[in-house]
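Continuing the series of single-chain predictions for the mutant panel. This is the parent chain; the variants come on the following pages.
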Amino acid sequence: MATYAIGDLQGCFAPLERLLDAISFDRARDRLWFVGDLVNRGPDSLACLRFVKDLGGAAFAVLGNHDLHLICVAEGIHSAGKRDTLKQVLDAPDRAQLLEWLRHRPLMHAEDGHVLVHAGILPAWSVDEARGLAGEVESHLRGPAFRDFLENMFGDQPNAWSEELRGWDRMRIVVNAMTRMRMCDASGAIALGYKGEPDEDAPAGLVPWYDVPGRRNRDATIFFGHWSALGLHVRDDVVGLDSGCVWGRSLSAIRLEDRAVFEVPCPTPRGG
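Parent structure:
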């Protein structure tokens, strides 16, 4: 038995099939951890959703920002964007079952010192605190008033954690940290505007969320995606797995047991 964490699919099903061939995936024995963003921008969002859903207990998939966007579009809360490739899902005969399944995915998964999350964990939170906060959001998203939650979920503020946060502000910062965050300032406040590489071109005073001094979740290895400009990024305490498949680069996986890395090339996007 082996567990493989896999980067952002974003509707790229053919590369996923090739990657599973490369690792000799056996659904009766192995498990797959998906870092979120199963859908959007790529050509086969419907196939990706159906496949991961069908894996049942052989897969964990956490929610990414594109997955949440799909749910909002389906509920009429967001309009589809010009680059969205969600129509196949929205027109599918099993649309209701797929969206219900997606809405019940977790924001994070923690197991044996490993954490799976789409974007990251706020430096101010321990893993246990983050798991509790994710559970608060999940209860809203899975509950009967989930539309109220979706209507209040998006927004860039607040960007700094406080134990005093309540209501939608509290839920929003959890969603932003776990599905949108890349960079923070030295105090650990989220800076959402920058999507590039964490190098000399990054705005002064900002660092990757995982390099904020005093980060309280360094006792686990955090597997995340969301940051294609960062690319495959492997170190002891964090593993970034968004290697830009949807942009024609590669789809990556890492085996948790021995840190073996697997990659397959992805086709150049249309117009690329």
